[in-house]
Design brief:
This protein has ten helices and twelve strands. The chain is an alpha/beta fold. It starts with a helix and ends with a helix.
Length: about 300
Amino acid sequence: MIHKDVDQAKKASSCSQQSCPSQQQAQNDAAKQQMEMEAMIKSNLAKIKNKIFVLSGKGGVGKSSVSANLAATLAKKGYKTGLMDVDVHGPSIAQMFDMKDLLDISPDTKLLLPKQINENLKVVSVQALMQDKDQAVIWRGPAKTGIIKQFVGSVAWGELDYLVIDAPPGTGDEPLTVVQTIPDARGIIVTTPQEVALADIRKSISFCKTVKMETLGVLENMAGFTCPHCNKHIDLFKSGGGEKTAKAQGLNFLGSIPFDTRVVESGDEGVPVMMYEAPGPFKDAFEKVVENILKQFEG
């Protein structure tokens, strides 16, 4: 018995040192899958002319609203546009576009089919993969990295003029994976005017510089509110902080967008406000922001 146990121990040691056939096969399969995914990512990205990465240092600054309305505006201007929501733990893009059904898979290519909002706009969100919309997504880094790569490589985006990427706030796994997967993405940093938010976007600016991602500029959201009863202008979160920070950091200032209750209402209704004619301060200000963005791409 002792000799048998020794022989088995030697075989186990040899297998662990040299990698047993089953382990080796698993490693080979994983390497093959990774290579196939990288090839699919490269192929898809080659069909997308411009990539815009919308990020922020903290939550609650309206980053997803900006992403949704930016994608809607680009599509309305006639650009073929994709919107990719990679906020794994707090996705809101699906709600803003009234995406109630699960995404389909193409029977021919086996690729995930994005939700076709209109002729020019396609959307993908983590929430559109969940049977239970209220289920918490409890994933560690590798799982989040994997889903982001699949959203780039395993989705039938087709030919696009612009891909807008909505990431969660902060500088963690998701933003880093986006930068590594889409190295030519250009960033828009969203903030509100008050110092608490500005302190966090300075970290986002540092992130962009560290990972060498080109930054289109800083966008100041919820810059003010006009009372519908007395027409008095109110600075809900102070004013001018975004522009000052942009200048201090040597970045473009894309513009200030006022707070508008219609943005809240339209988001809840599943139709971003920029998708339909809604004259007013918000629409005018947002149009100017988009013009400043397009100048950098088209110029």
